[in-house]
Design a protein that fits this description.
Blueprint (H helix, E strand, L loop, with lengths): L5 H5 L5 E12 L3 E6 L4 E8 L2 E4 L4 E4 L4 E4 L5 E5 L5 E10 L3 H4 L6 E2 L7 H14 L4 H23 L4 H16 L7 H7 L4 H12 L3 H19 L5 H7 L5 H12 L3 H11 L2
Antiparallel strand pairs: 1-8, 2-7, 3-6, 3-8, 4-5, 4-7, 6-9
Helix pairs in contact: 3-4, 8-10, 8-11
Length: about 280
């Protein structure tokens, strides 16, 4: 999994179109001797037992305490390991496009850190599904997406082989949480994490291909685009203030450089598209 970079984690997006089923399994004789493709994606949590999966070009063992993701469309086989009864939760679902799930930045077999109670999360989803109550399917979608986000964040911040990636994700979260402040500077970011500005520039360039200032500008412009569409009552000056700019002229200049048009023009074009 060394191919994952910080940009993979910061740009994660996936849409679940349907939860097919959710169950708790207790099985003593599981076997899948012939390779075949899954119709839908699977996300499992092993409580006890173990399975050795073979995908042809790669394989792995699923052991107690591990989360396993099984993508649709890839032929695989498996055999039960001699570790007692297999007990696990399984969530089967569809995404669009299907490849989004395969490309998610965390391993096919992963042991979450102690900070993430994965078993409780799976148990809650299984309970909601089994209840068949009002909106239970929608709730299962939401909880499954929340679980995937938690797993990806846990892997991104706790895997010891990715120090730079873990650091830059924390740096980016700080910028996203404070971008609206007009006095936010790269020097403050460096001071908050007790690192040098040179370190920040190096790690942003190597992991994201941009400077900290450019990343902050992109966050502010993205927020401005949202406000221009969702708050027609806001003047351009108010949008500028809300996005951390002390000068509406500088805001307009940065917006034009990033988007290719002025904030006013962008608002007009979005009105036409949504008419």
């Amino acid at each position: 999994m060394s191919s994952f970079t910080a940009s993979d984690f910061l740009s994660v997006d996936i849409g679940i179109t349907k939860i097919d089923n959710v169950w708790y399994q207790c099985d003593t004789n599981w076997a899948k001797p012939q390779k075949s493709e899954r119709i839908c994606h699977g996300l499992l949590y092993f409580i006890s037992g173990g399975i050795e999966y073979d995908f042809g070009s790669f394989g792995f063992s699923a052991l107690p305490g591990q989360v396993v993701r099984l993508p649709a469309g890839i032929p695989y086989s498996g055999r039960k390991l001699e570790y007692g009864v297999n007990r696990y939760y399984c969530i089967n679902f569809y995404t669009e496009p299907s490849e989004d799930y395969t490309a998610l930045p965390f391993p096919y077999s992963y042991t979450p850190s102690g900070a993430l109670d994965a078993e409780s999360a799976f148990a809650e989803i299984e309970e909601r599904w089994r209840s068949a109550s009002l909106c239970s399917k929608l709730e299962c979608k939401y909880l499954t997406l929340q679980l995937l986000a938690s797993l990806i964040k846990d892997f991104a911040t706790n895997d010891c082989h990715y120090d730079d990636r873990s650091r830059i994700i924390r740096y980016c979260e700080y910028l996203r949480g404070n971008f609206h402040r007009q006095n936010l500077r790269v020097s403050e970011l460096a001071g908050h994490f007790h690192v040098s500005e040179t370190h920040l520039r190096r790690i942003f360039a190597s992991e994201l291909g941009c400077s900290p200032a450019a990343y902050l500008a992109q966050i502010r412009v993205d927020s401005a685009k949202r406000l221009l569409c969702e708050r027609p009552d806001y003047s351009i000056s108010q949008v500028s203030d809300a996005c951390g700019y002390s000068s509406v002229y500088y805001f307009s200049s940065v917006f034009h450089e990033v988007v290719g048009c002025s904030p006013s023009r962008y608002r007009e074009e979005m009105k036409k598209l949504n008419f």
